Amino acid sequence: MEYLSHNEQETEMLGQRLSAVLSPGSVVAYQGGLGMGKTAFTRGLAKGLGYPGRVTSPTFTIVNEYEGGRLPLFHFDMYRLADANALFDIGWEDYLDRGGICAVEWSEQVDGAMPAGTIFVTISRCGDHDLWRTITIEGVELP
Fold first, then answer.
1. Half-sphere exposure of 133 (CA within 13 A, CB side)
2. Could you give the count of Cα atoms lying within 13 Å of 87 in the half-sphere of its Cβ?
3. pTM of the predicted model over 0.90
């Protein structure tokens, strides 16, 4: 399904809607360039899961863990990883087994590691509007 977001708040709200249908072990794989709103979408996921704290990009840490909501949220940034093998080196399978939600920015870097049933979220700029985004969600229907 394709959605239009006019600003960061609408992108977060779409992430919040997606959180309502996620179950333990769900993987959300993002695709989209720099500054498209992947972290904003993840803030919405965290809010929808009931996480009360601040959500930031894990660019330099590779993964941020957010606990305290309905399910734990593991927020990955694969931009600096060379390939899927590097993801397995940091314990990817352990994260999948922990029963939380794995939100993966730059998932195209590690395509081979995405399990069956992965939900794909593609975010791109919409026309000449700097803030507008087209957000495509594949693999699940939103409420």
1. 26
2. 24
3. yes
Q: CA angle 95-96-100, nearest 5°?
A: 80
Most confident listed range (42-46, 60-64, 80-84)? 42-46
Position 96 pLDDT exceeds 90: yes
Helices 38-49 + 8-19 axis angle, to 10? 50
Half-sphere exposure of 101 (CA within 13 A, CB side): 31
Where along the chain do its domains lie? 2-138
Superfamily per CATH, domain 2-138: P-loop containing nucleotide triphosphate hydrolases (3.40.50.300)
Rg of the chain (C-alpha set): 14
pLDDT value, residue 97 = 93
